[in-house]
Amino acid sequence: MPIRPTALGFALAAALLPAMASAQAYQCRIPQGPISLPNIERDGPMRQTRVTGYTLALSWSPEFCRFRDDEPRHARQCSGNSGRFAFIVHGLWPEGPNGRYPQWCPARDRPTQAEVRGAMCMSPDTRLVTRQWAKHGACMTSDAGVYLRITDILWRSLRWPDFDRLSRRRGLTAGDVRETFAEANPYWDAEDVGLVVNERGWLREMRLCYGADFMPTACDARRFGPDDDEEVRIWRGI
After folding, report:
1. What's the CATH architecture for 7-32+44-224?
2. Residues 6 or more apart whose Cβ sits within 8 Å of residue 154
3. Dihedrals φ, ψ of 182, to 5°?
4. Whole-model pTM?
5. By Cβ atoms counted within 10 A, which residue in 118, 177, 189, 227 is the most buried?
6. pLDDT, tens digit, for every residue of 7-60?
7. How far apart are CA 181 and CA 126, in angstroms?
8. What angle do CA 11, 102, 89 make, to 5 degrees?
């Protein structure tokens, strides 16, 4: 069943903020005027299970946009006309026991235009925001605004090292990426940072692993990704 907003550990998440700088700096322009909120249709089975933790999935935008910069569907994120994005929030996902995770839980609520607009610098696509709520957020809380606020709190609590500089390091490994992120974020250990790379070894996503209390925790094998000694490359978008 979806857990109540009061059980979402706001105090623990908010306690991170005084010790952290603001999240990664980048340029972003919020759309003016009304925005279109797409209807999201379920494309998989409904699955309700106990929530045992969370994953904050962060997509590396330069790699995502590498072959999409001229696609209208991804124009806001990839064209450069609405700003330049580095890591963006793919989604905040509840996790369940034994590798099973809840999804597509029944929901009466949906994000408002104001709530979606407020999320568009961390998740620059309206379909991405509304889909993540429908597929994942509704299994955490009955209130779409609460889901987006929790995501924003976690997002803003993070410090970002210079990934442009990191990308230029010779012999860069998955372990280097994890250690660099952990060194910039005092609540995190390298084992709490999962990575997703494509078949050519380029970084696609970072998966940050949280316990049920919203504190960082070691990733399981499913989320951890490549071994620490595996070579990783980071596309800079140029």
Report:
1. Alpha-Beta Complex (3.90)
2. 13, 56, 92, 208, 210, 214
3. -65, -35
4. 0.90
5. 177
6. 344 434 444 444 433 444 457 888 888 898 999 999 999 999 999 999 999 999
7. 28
8. 60
